[in-house]
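Good morning C.,

I know you're traveling, so I'll keep this short. The sequence:
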Amino acid sequence: MLYTIALVLIILWLAGLVTSYTMGGFIHILLVIAVIVILVRLING
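The tokens, ready to paste straight into the viewer:
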């Protein structure tokens, strides 16, 4: 579940970069959270 959410956040972040439509620093905070979640999932197995 968390992995799916993280993946969606990363896709939205990339879409925001491509379309130049960003919500300020908020979208980058979401990206950092998504990366942390993925790393935790990989470390814990």
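Safe travels,
E.
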